[in-house]
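User: Sequence in, structure out. Go.
Assistant: Echoing your sequence, followed by the structure tokens.
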Amino acid sequence: MRTYKDIDTFTDWEHEEKNQFSLAVTKGLIMDMVRKANSGHSGGPMSSADFTQILFTEYLNFDPTEPDWFNRDRFILSAGHESALMYAILYQIGWLDHNDISNFRQLHSKTPGHPEVEIPGVEATTGPLGQGFGMAVGMATAESILRAKFNKINEKQSDEIFGHYTYVVAGDGDFQEPVVLGAGSMAGHWGLSKLIVYYDSNNAQISGKVDRSDSTNYAQVFEGFGWHVQEIDGHNHEKIREAIEKAQVVDRPSLIIGTTIMAKGAANVEGDYETHGAPLAHEEIKATKEKLGLPQEEFYLPKEVMDHFQHRFKTLIESSKAWKSQINTACQDNDFNSYWESLFQKSYAEIEYPNFESGTHLATRKAFGATLDKFATQIPNLVGGSADLEPSNYTGNFAMEFGDFSKDNRMGRNLAFGVREFPMAAAMNGMALHGGLMPFGGTFLVFADYERPALRLGSIQKCRVMHEFTHDSFWVGEDGPTHQPIEHAMSLRAIPNFNVFRPADAKETAVCFKLAMESHETPSALLLTRQGVPVFDSSIDVIIDGVSKGAYTIYASDNPELIFLATGSEVSLAIAVAQKMTDKRIRVVSMPCWEIFEAQSLDYQESLIPTRGAMKISFEAGITLGWERFTGSNGLSIGINHFGASAPGPDLAEEFGFTVEKIEPRIREHLASLL
């Protein structure tokens, strides 16, 4: 066995000898990172290292000088706790340095406990198990759509101009998360042939052996999903290469199940599940380095090994340059150039809005559908769908017009997600991270609960995605309390870097839709009514100006003594109450987006909702918790702090006190109580 003592003759070693020693160096870096931090995971990275090292050094297509090169292969470490492996690889690429890896898991370092998308070479923030897999399905979907579109436009050229693989490394914990099964089923149905997942099956978890809690035959499961499945020795390099090469040419997604040993290469603790979430002991690291032929030096990475890792870099850079030249040539075609530029569009200032007739009644979910139909013809990379609620979410016209994405129709823009809310949201994050598409997904607001882990992770990653949540209150009616969202709007507002839009009418809905598309570093949710609401008389320009500030005056009285604050369907209710209380000077403020309003200047906030001088009263068909930030200690919040009931919507409005006749006396009683 070759050791560090032979490094001076490294150039004369056999190729596989170089590979094995380079792998040993990677494992040394892993052990040192986790040990120095006294925190992290050692065993998993050492079991996954064989596949990952071979992938990066022999198969992965990327540009070492440009981590964000658009046509690169994507690599997602779904087993995000194995971050030390990722960082060891990025160190050898040159995207991290010695200081970075020596500060593993430390404040403000580029090597946090789990991979974060801001780090060069990290495609997705992972750690919550299963979501990396789900996001990878979204990336592979984006790749498939864009490849079909570009190659169709550019069909006069014989070579495909766009296309790359999406690779995933996942572990036992990933596969136990239901999101993987949902996303896996979706990927198989869509036939995502450039998605390749490596399942590092080491039969070890934090609490013990995997077979204590799971006996699923994932090979059979994924074959049932329509995947190509291979089972190999995950430490046999020739088998790894054969598996990758087979996976690259099949016409469906691929799962490579690698049977591995936890902490592979360790001197005394190979296979020990306790290595999963802890550093190896000092003596164990010392003995392991001796076993692997490494010096005791911390963070050992000789130039010879670095050069070996980078032996393809010249070829990779030339390939990237050739592709960019190909794109430049293709962009001489107007159709191609137009679509290419649409992928990177930041603003939609010239977009044409749908027309909504003032004075009519229209559910905001229907307004969303009309806006989607109008915008989709102007924005060619707007894609998405519904979690089997097309008639309710009003995405059906979009589906009819642009077709379902499928094995047979790669240019279909409608994504029939099925009843898979969490996989849908995770995949949308992946599409956004991939770049080039503006994804949306629809379901009922109450089912945002199923999506929440992905909503949070999308916010952390600053993903531009749009979540359409219809049936936004007890006005759902007969479906009853299980389907009537009460706490949901507030719970979504609690997520940092997440815009919650609750538009009051059709015009506000269209403007919120546009703002969501232009929020390039913030995911958005549109909370929309089932029932019809009045369309305001205000012009679209007035609505645009007001909504862009998050809140604005919709009904005015000079020198107001009462200020009504409302969102969604309760804005028209607040106006109706104000019009009845003729003895009071009342301003009604529509607040479609708290987050945008609170980003405005303090002067604007104070001018709209002054701290002193007027009583503030909030109107929203949900829990009142949170409104006190605007109403103050003496204000009044009209809401619902209990679950709903099954009955027609108007009956529930009467029952829960959401009528003019019940709200007016409540306000007057509150005012009297303060005197």
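User: And one key feature?
Assistant: The first helix runs from residue 15 to 37.
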